Every structure is written in C-alpha cells, then in structure tokens.
Input
Amino acid sequence: MESKVDPTKDILADVTSENAEPYREFWRQALAVQGSIMMHVLPNVVLSGVVATIVCFVAYYLKQNHSFQIGFNVSLYEVVGGALGLLLVLRTNAGYDRWWEGRKLWGGIVNQSRNLCINALSYGPNEPEWRSKFVRWVAVFGHVSRMRLRNESESPEVTNLIGEQSAQELFKTEHMPSAVSMMLGGMLKDACDRGLMTEPAFLQAEQERAKLIDHLGACERILRTPLAMAYSVKIRQFIALFILTLPFALVNSLGAYWQVPLLTMMVAYPLLSLDQLGVELQNPFSTKNLSHLPLAEISKAIEKNVLSLLRAKSVKSGDLDFKVREQKRTEELISFLNKN
Output
C-alpha cells in the first residue's frame, strides 16, 4: 500500500516532539556523551590532574627531604574563583545571545517565505506555471541560505526544485541567495508590468523579498564577526593560571595528597566546560559545533510549507491538469525530503 505523506505537516514539529521527551530525563542527559561538551574538554581536565600530581610529588619530596612546605593560602582562590565564574557566565551569555539571535533570524526567514508566497499566490498572475516557478524559487532561498552559512557548494534539494540546468547555473554564482532574490524580483516585476499584479501587492511582495535578504545579512554578520579575540585570550589565560596554581593551594589544606589531583580536575571540568560552551555557541550555523541550529530541517520545513500553499491554490483554482502534475511532483519532492 502506498504511504501518504501530509505536505502540510511541519518537520519542525517532528523535531520538537522527538527532542521534548529526553529533556524530562535528568540522569539520561546528565550521563550523556553524545551532544555533551565533555569530550572536548576532557584532555585539558586530565592535563590539570597530571600537573596536580606532579605538584604533589614535588611537595612530598621537599617536605620529606628538606622540611620545606610549598603552598598558597586557599582563601585567595575562593575570591578569585568567584570573579572567574562571573567572567565565564558573561562569556557564555554572549555566545548564547548570538545563538538565539541566529534562531530568531531564521524564524524570520520562515515567516517571510510564507508571506511572500501567500502574497504572490493571492495577488499575482493566475498562471499555474508562473505560480509553480515562483513558489519553488522561494523554497530554494531557504536552501541556498543554509548553503551560504555552511559554505556548501551544491544541494540536491535545489536541483529537485528547479532542475539540473538552473541549479548548476545558480551554484556558479558568487552569492546564491542574492541570485535567487533577483530571480524572484524579476518575476514580480514582470507580473506587475503585464498588469497581472497590482502595484500595492507588488510593493508588499517586494518588502517581503527584501526582508529575506535582510535576515540573511544579519546571519552573515554573526558568522563573520566572532567574539573579540582579546577577550577570549584573556579569559583563557585567567583560567589556565587558576587551574595550574590551584594544586599549590590544595596541597597543604587537604588531608591526603591523592585528593589534590581529584579536586583539581573537579574544579577544572566546569570551568573549562563553560569556556568551551561559549566557543561552541558563538557560531550557531556550523555543523562542527555542538547545538548548531537545525538549518537543514528548517529549510526543508520552508519547502514543505510553501509547496502545500501552492497545492492548496491549485486545488482552489480548479486547474485539474496542473493539479495532477503539481501534486505528483510535490509528492516526489516530499518523498525525497523524508528520505534525507
């Protein structure tokens, strides 16, 4: 039996429902390795333990052979640790702000894509071929925006939407989203010049189209403007100094030498994790970073949404021949999206 796929079903809803349940399981997340920052900081945590062990051996040797005790006052580290924690929180918040801004901008791309299609289908030419071409190019914008932010050169989704020849020509352009936006602008101007679209509707559609580029430009600003290097370097120097000298404060305050490396690693782990978390969040688009934005899923959701609008308009207009062709092609595209 042939399975039927609802083109109006939002793929983001699937992602949300799949990810909602794990967030209710504390221990499953507390012990998780996949998606955790632990593996990124573990080498440095172990290194801090090794340094603490060396300090313990040196302290023991000096005490036994020369009756000399090395060490600092541990109360100093209580004050310094509080200041360091505040700096790390500020760094993490700065990274999260970038991540959240990127998500809001992509939410704007989703909304503007829908609005642009609704405007074109409601007030544009009553020509099935024009409507189909326009909607597919709107769907392409989401895919090429993802490609731009992730430095990807080709996309099978784009090829399936506009054909091999048009896709290859698009892939050769310097800035693919701008080329797609120009194509959409040309189609809107052509409809207005032919008197098939009113001037107010044309101006509204132009505003929606311009906002797509505005949102992408803001994403590119996030991508090309990392956090200040001097800020990052200074915080990491502060962390390194704190962790490497901490064993000297613990070696005389703890009852047993073996406790010093263990406690040093327990302190180093959250400090290094917060630092790395700020690094991971500052680029919300790269798949190399943890918790990157699901741009592939969002762009597929845009495609499904606008194609469902096209099919609904085709059904309402009563163009039976086009309806059959469009429904078949839409189902093929949705089947391709579900497989990927």
Notes: The mean pLDDT is 84. The chain is about 80% helix and 0% strand.
